[in-house]
Design goal:
The protein is an alpha+beta fold. It is built from nine helices and seven strands, in the order αβαβαββαβαββαααα. Among the domains are: 120 residues, Lambda Exonuclease, Chain A, CATH 3.90.320.10; 38 residues. The protein has a five-stranded mixed beta sheet, with helices on both faces. Strands 1-2 form a two-stranded antiparallel ribbon.
Length: 237
């Protein structure tokens, strides 16, 4: 039966190795070692169930981006690439909204909207710090003052919005956290494992017999990128 076939599948995405080391803001609260593996484009091990959940989440993203783009008096720029080279960060904001309605509602010309999905949303739901930190990096990288986290329930389509402004203390902790990782890599070692390995998509890499080969690649790619990124070098002088 199809169900039996699906449940037996163990998916492993193909390597999508990068030519540059780049941390995605959505990974900022993961294990330090997982952040490095992701930044180098090391493929994740995933199950079919996880892949199906990705499809659901991506569908919700596309739907909300479409709805936002249809609103009168609102211009929607979807999937905007945002780079912060001094911290080797690179991500994609779901939507940047502008227009008359944005100006009248927020008192600013542009806002960033980050779309998330969740299960059942409680009435007093607040986004986790990881989502707020991700949006803060986008605000920092664009100079936009205000953002919104739009969380959509996969269960019944209900939603929650949370207005976010730049939090300098939070950003400082994020950037210090990144520099701890970078200091390890500059020293020729991978950062320590500081998360729950049992639920990590990179578990099979970290515990593989040839893990050192992967780690050597990550360290080399980081140092090549750091050496060739003017903004990063100037900040770390």
């Amino acid at each position: 039966m199809l169900r039996d076939i699906i449940e037996e599948i163990k998916l492993r995405k193909e390597f999508e190795l990068k030519t540059r080391f780049a941390v995605h803001p959505s990974t900022l609260t993961q294990c330090k070692r997982a952040i490095v593996l992701s930044a180098c484009g090391i493929a994740q091990y995933t199950t079919t169930q996880q892949e199906l959940m990705f499809c659901v989440a991506n569908g919700a993203h596309a739907m909300m981006e479409h709805i936002l783009g249809l609103q009168e008096g609102v211009h929607c720029e979807c999937e905007k690439r945002i780079k912060i080279p001094e911290y080797l960060l690179s991500g994609i904001a779901d939507a940047v909204l502008s227009g008359d309605r944005i100006l009248s509602s927020y008192g600013t010309e542009r806002i960033i909207v980050e779309i998330k999905t969740s299960g059942y949303l409680k009435a007093n739901y607040t986004p986790p710090v990881s989502h707020i930190a991700q949006l803060n990096t986008y605000l920092y990288g664009t100079g936009i003052e205000i953002g919104e986290i739009l969380t959509v329930s996969r269960t019944n389509g209900s939603y929650n919005t949370c207005t976010v402004e730049i939090d300098e203390e939070l950003l400082s902790s994020v950037f210090s956290f990144l520099d701890e990782i970078y200091d390890s890599l500059h020293g020729g070692t991978m950062p320590e494992i500081d998360g729950d390995c049992s639920s990590c998509w990179y578990y099979e890499y970290c515990h593989a017999s040839d893990a050192s080969n992967i780690y050597d690649y990550c360290i080399r790619l980081f140092n090549e990128t750091a050496d060739n990124t003017k903004e990063y070098k100037e900040r770390r002088k």
